[in-house]
Amino acid sequence: MSIAANDLKQMPESPGGVSACPACVVAPAAADLARVVKDARIVLSLPAAHCADCISRVEKALQAVEGVRSARLNLTMKRVSVDAGPEVSPADLIQVLDRAGYEAHELDPGLLSVTETDRQGRDLLMRMGVAFFSMMNVMLLSVAVWSGADGATRDMFHWISGAIALPTVAFSSQPFFKGAWRSMKAGRLGMDFPISLAILLACFISLYETINSGVHVYFDAAVMLTFFLLIGRYLDHRTRAIARSAAQELAALEVPRAIVLLDGAEVVKPISEVAVGDLVLVRPGGRMPVDGVVTEGASEVDRSLLTGETLPVAAHPGTVVSAGEVNLTGPLTLRVTAAGKDSSLHQMADLVAVAEAAKTRYTSLAERAAHAYSSIVHVLAGVAFGGWLIYTGGDFRMSVNIMAAVLIITCPCALGLAVPAVLTSASGKLFRKGMLIKDGTALERMSQIDTVVFDKTGTLTMGQPLVTNFDSHPLSAREVALALAGASSHPLAMALAETARAAGLRPARVEDIREMPGYGIEGTWKGLRVRLGRAEWCGAMPGQETATWLSTGEGAPRAFTFSDRLRPGAADLMAALKAGGQRVILLSGDTETAVSSLAAELGIDDWSAGVLPAEKAARIRDLRATGAQVLMVGDGLNDTAALAEAYVSISPASALDAARVASDIVLLGQNIAPIADAIRISRQASKRIVENFKISAGYNIVAVPLALFGMATPLAAALAMSLSSITVSLNALRLK
């Protein structure tokens, strides 16, 4: 069971608050961070960083290193960016952080887009704040006019309203104007076009009426429209803001440098300069920078990131290794067979990129409805203008007013809020249950799933070996085992040592301890040679169970057996899925014995062992080809392509960062049972979305004829439109 598989996993992104004045408060910090990231020579991943105290301790520890000019920890992304001189290596900083209590792993800064701020979100929030402030002031002036002000007083209030409203609309409505312009250049009319047309018409008519001392102006309607529409746009943005490219994250996991052996000398080269046939040295604890064949050395390799195998495998001359695997116990010399873009890790990133591109072709229900809706709006507005122009004998002023009322009353504000309001409400409910929604269309897709595919290690299990027979051994054997296991970084040895320390044991006095790469640890105890490691090396016959063996020279070797702890809620989730009629499949890269045992325990009939990453993605692709809507739940690098390929995907918070990024939903806690809640709530959310569309349609059926027959002014149309938006939002809140 590999603990090293968790080395590169990260915890969930911390939810961030919004500043009262984003432009003033956030901008200096953003500029400072941008400078640090731009100058950063080293970027490290810190999976265990979780609080403000971590920021202080990490940055203080790094800045104390000679040659480090600056260090900035991004708590959201669990990354620290370091600006340091050439004399400082990533390995030096990793050791410093290890002494400070933080495991750290190098990422390639050239392949990461590191930013702490959400520029688009801040921009929308700032425009929304300006629109709200202006709307309240213009409404106050409108109340004075409605109360009976006329003549010069009324004209003055109209001019003041215009002076507030026109700059506000020009600034706050830019997202809609830009969207409308882009759609027009592309030869189509999207939702932003009728929105922009309604706002501009309300402004032009109001300005025309103000210049000509008209009784009615609609500056308040224009600003009100802008404000409500910005609310919908911001809610929609927040549901998408967390998503980043999984392929980019995968690429960043590639080791950026390698130690190349040239005439016996060690030369550190960028991975782009490593060629096929070069000899590369990989020290214990390091990740393989290339695909290659071992030419010298003996060690054990953790392949769980790539294949899902729970136990490390022995590596010796002739063993084939892949980029991304972790060298555990001894130095290895590799002859390069593939590097950079040709490596297996990079090929996996390409698989993810292809799958992500396919997933983005999914169009949300709101977008499909808006596409049909926008053309109808323009036809109705044109009919209203032409009809009234003929009916009134050429009264252009009245015809334009009625056309504006039609455009405003049919403005797709409620339609724009229908989906984001529901998704925001549902996302909040699921967040309280321990689920973080990352993609705006995830809940719509989740409501349609009929097949659930699970990974094993780290998903249905915790991915951490537990000793199952520790207390059955004599005290002296346990103390010797602690002394030997404490000197090793092997996952089973580390788990054994942790169990012994938790039991309050002290290590026996074992001398001359040394690790034999690929075999285990040995030493001298009471004049006897003692060993902890592989069965054959300790003089025992290996069995079917996961075990490490102890030979003390006193009697037969003893086996310390291990099992993987079941993730909390796994049994309840299986029962809920079966009760809901979902098909459950288990795909794992682990051994057949381990997979069949777990499948039997959870009652999963459809399972496969020894499945490679590309095979997982292909299996999901085949399922979808048969019409199945697949939910994939996985946590490792070997699951990333499958997560991206699935119709909808979930990963635990402990997952590798690339797996979390490829997923639509992140499970924040250890309990996996909330996945059943996510399916149920997603179906409720889809019902609310459909209800909101019906509310929007019903509103238009009643309101549009009133506008067409000249029974609604642009202001009345704006008030009716606002009422429909509020109704849609209240219906969405029913999810809570």
- The shape is elongated
Total of DSSP H or I helical runs spanning 4+ residues: 25
> How many structural units, i.e. domains?
5
Structural class: alpha+beta
For the biggest sheet, the summary is: 7 strands, mixed
Identify low-pLDDT runs: 1-40, 113-117, 239-246
N- to C-terminal distance: 41 Å
Q: Could you give the order of strands across the largest sheet?
A: 14-26-25-24-15-22-23
State the total count of DSSP E strands. 26
Radius of gyration: 32 Å
Name the average pLDDT. 78
Report the β-strand fraction as a percent range: 15-25%
Task: Tell me the helix content.
Answer: 40-55%
Q: How would you describe what is shown here?
A:
The protein is α+β, with helices and mostly antiparallel strands and 736 residues long. 50% of the residues lie in helices and 17% in strands. A hairpin with a 2-residue loop joins strand 18 and strand 19 (528-533). Helix 4 (119-146) runs antiparallel to helix 5 and helix 17 (475-485) packs across helix 18. The chain is elongated and about 115 Å long. The protein starts with 21 loop residues before the first helix and ends with a helix.
Descriptive key words:
seven-stranded mixed beta sheet; 5 domains; 736 residues; Calcium-transporting ATPase, cytoplasmic transduction domain A; Alpha-Beta Plaits; six-stranded antiparallel beta sheet; disordered N terminus; alpha+beta; 25 helices
